[in-house]
From TrEMBL:
Regions that span the bilayer: 9-31, 61-79, 91-114
Species for this entry: Streptococcus moroccensis
Lineage top rank: taxon: Bacteria
Name of this protein: DUF4064 domain-containing protein
UniProt entry keywords in alphabetical sequence: Membrane, Transmembrane, Transmembrane helix
């Protein structure tokens, strides 16, 4: 049984995560930092504490972008190396990505990962009825 649909959905999810992370790291974090500093300067509230707080929040945004980039790269590798046999590790990875997407409220990634896990588990049940055993774990 070929897992073409799962691979395509995982490639889309990985691509979305990579695009999202690039936009977050290079676009949003620099925009946030410049807009916050401009807002603080216009209100004469630019103190060391406020500037430090803006810098800390900007670093958290960069860490989120980096984590999303790592998730996208790992998902791309998993999609590239996916075998037709059922594998519990892939299910756990997709569930972890789905949980991360729920926590960060990334609706597009939720749709991709939820569709992937639904199709993957449905095909695994069909393969189980045929007598194919799970690999991994």
């Amino acid at each position: 049984m070929v897992r073409k649909a799962e691979k395509i959905l995982l490639y889309l999810a990985a691509g979305w995560n990579i695009i999202n992370s690039i936009l977050t790291i290079f676009g949003y974090s620099s925009w946030f930092q410049s807009e916050s500093n401009d807002l603080l300067e216009s209100g004469n509230n630019l103190t060391y504490l406020n500037a430090s707080l803006v810098d800390t929040i900007s670093k958290v945004v960069m860490l989120y972008g980096l984590l999303t980039l790592i998730i996208g790269i790992i998902t791309f590798i998993i999609a590239k190396t996916m075998k037709p046999q059922p594998n519990k590790k892939i299910i756990l990875w997709i569930l972890a990505c789905l949980l991360f997407s729920f926590i960060s409220y990334d609706v597009i990634a939720i749709v991709f990962y939820l569709s992937t896990i639904t199709i993957y588990i449905a095909r695994n049940r069909a393969l189980k009825k045929k007598g194919v055993e799970y690999y991994g774990l």
